[in-house]
Amino acid sequence: MPESRTPAAALSDGLSNRQVTMISIAGIIGAGLFIGSANAIATTGPAILLSYAITGLLVLLVMRMLGEMAVLNPDSGSFSTYATEALGQRAGFTVGWLYWWFWVLLIPVEAIAGADILHAWFSAVPSWAFTAAIIAVLTTTNLLQVKNFGEFEFWFSLVKVLAIVAFIAVGALAVFGAWPLADVSGVRHLFANQGFMPHGFGAVLTGILVTVFSFFGAEIVTIAAAESKRPAEKIRRAINLVVWRIALFYLLSIFLVVSLVNWSDPGLRQQGTFQYVLTTLNMPGAKLMVDVVVFVAVCSCMNSGLYTASRMLFSLARRGDAPAACGRVSAQGVPRAAVTASTLAGFAACVANYAFPGRVFTFLISTTGAIALLVYLVIAASQLVLRRRAERRGQPPAFKMWLFPWLTWAAIGVILAVLGYMFALDDYREQGLLTLAVAGGVFVVSLYVTRGRRRAAPVF
């Protein structure tokens, strides 16, 4: 029996309104915005704004599709459950395990990044000790009660939001010539150095491949809302917030960056996006402030990654697609076995990184290259099937995808085009092939695991 028929009754509803709201607001803000966007800007130039806008529009459409399904059927398995209902057991199995794989590998990435920041502050303590401590603290909080995850994420998210709002305020003052600490003003850098699109439109498409992973994680709110009261209401509200989150946090902040500094300056990559801009504006203590915010951001991403991986593993177990122990919960409604298993997998990747630096872990990370795009593709395909099924039954959803089916097909076309472009580029082809190899391997395993099992009854 699929989990959707037992509406996550074993999970608690301990996430409060303010926690889910803050998770929905700041869930897409990671260290990639504060630091990693520098590489995207240096590769694309000011036209990176187009990359972010196109990617943001794609994410907006995908989230609307996901919201349509999630409002009718809130579920901790989210799109994996919907893929099972729409496309069959093997599709749900494959996308669920790929999603788990992505977040499990993100756990060590974020823990190691946070440890490196702490090691730079306290060099006497080895980096691996900080890594182990970060993993231990966040795992412990996730093992106790879901409200602990929510509370940590609330404060992490609040810090990120305040940091971006402060950055936008400072940047706006500088653009209008009102920043007193530096003689930097206007938006001349948008066009001053080889123009707005210095590397042509092809670089904009390349920028999409970089920026798409910055937005990945917006779907977490549909998983978290399943552990709150009135989840459908919270999902609807969160989906409606996507537009201004993308516009404010990404488009506006990146616009200020490419307006105020030279996109081709090597210092942009060396220092990271926000630190380089603040340093250019002579902001006192810029490095320390950005280090604190980035540390909070990586801890937030790891916290979310551990939570998301464990809930996806729990959902897979409930549907018979993972070990049964991972589908059990504690008296507090926490799937502790799923949390522990996800942590151990992430910790093993950490050990591989320290034991074989630059080899095993780098290979593992490269296998996640196209997972975000594959997940988006499955969400769109599932919504297409389930919406048509619902309309044939005379039960169209109240929270609808816009201009169905045209925008759904348009999103599918864009995703396939970006995947195709990924394989056309030498720098990304290997990542794409490795991701497809992993996806193919998981699908082959699904043929064995789901063998002889009846297809789940449609939920719509």
TrEMBL record:
It comes from the Bacteria. The keyword Iron-sulfur does not apply. Residues 20-424 form the Amino acid permease/ SLC12A domain. The chain crosses the membrane at residues 20-41, 47-66, 98-122, 128-146, 158-181, 201-226, 238-261, 288-309, 337-356, 362-386, 406-425, 431-450. Keywords: Membrane, Transmembrane, Transmembrane helix, Transport. This is Gamma-aminobutyrate transporter. It is found in: Cell inner membrane. PANTHER family: GABA PERMEASE, GAMMA-AMINOBUTYRIC ACID PERMEASE. One of its GO terms (biological process) is transmembrane transport. It holds the Pfam family AA_permease. One of its GO terms (cellular component) is plasma membrane. It is a multi-pass membrane protein. The keyword Membrane applies.
